[in-house]
User: Fold this.
Amino acid sequence: MLTVFGSIAFDTIRTPTKIIKNALGGAATYAAISASFFVKPGLIGVVGYDFPRKYQSILDRFVDSRGVVNAKGKTFRYDGSYDLTLSQRTTNKTELNVLKDFKPVVPEEYRKSEFVYLANNDPVQNTKILEEFDKVKFSMCDTIEFWISSKRNDVIKMMGSVDSVVINDEEAKLLTKTHNLIKAAKKIMEWGTKYVIIKKGEHGSLLFYDDVVFPSPAFSMENIVDPTGAGDSFAGGMIGYLSSKNSTKISTIREAAVYGNIMGSFAVEKYGVYGITGLKKSNIKQRFDRYKNMVHF
Ligand code: AMP
Assistant:
């Protein structure tokens, strides 16, 4: 089984062509929905009294949401703007709200999860919750500038407690205080994790382990609408695929990184979660096959 823990949010997304307010978002939301095309994940997170029924029913369609708690207060909110190229995002506002003092509990039914994804979230909560699982075979975490700036030491501790770290290029540089991604990955591995996956947006990803680097390009896209959640969809696709194979073999991890790129490419095609909620398994298979042809030489 796979469990995903992290933020569930109201997102305000400002692109040069459109502003979307209070859309269903959150790192765990994207990751869990993306993973659901491979296995049915359990989701742990917190929402407030303002979380609408229609968003809850989207979650229920894709995931086991027995781990989603309704707390007194407002749902976590994120507000971000993209530049003209849609490749740079500026955070306008992060309101933690109910996420701030959340004390997550792993439901009994999820305790035996062998795969655990700690999506972007408070690193202290992430590290603590990992200890509550009985037999984790593969764990993975992500983070974002907000946590690197406010809780850097806790982020490092979290990264030392998981099997793999998935992180975007800018955040990897910020966290490790270096400009070179190979140096950044090596530094993160020194903190105790075995695999580092650096996401490079439209340029794909680099998977590092031992002395090896496995680069995989992004699926080439002409029309990008909203990149929000691409990184989370990448991670969800990756760990969802691994969980479906119940394997942590390196060949499977490399394949999983390709599925990550494929799921990320769907996420950017529509606003909010709609790039992935409208998918069928056959769309994923088709794009995976095209990708295979694309990179074959
Ligand atoms: P991505 O575009 O993959 O980097 O992820 C964007 C998602 O992360 C949005 O849906 C946000 O709601 C969520 N998010 C943004 N900032 C934070 C934060 N500080 N902690 C947790 N989740 C966040």
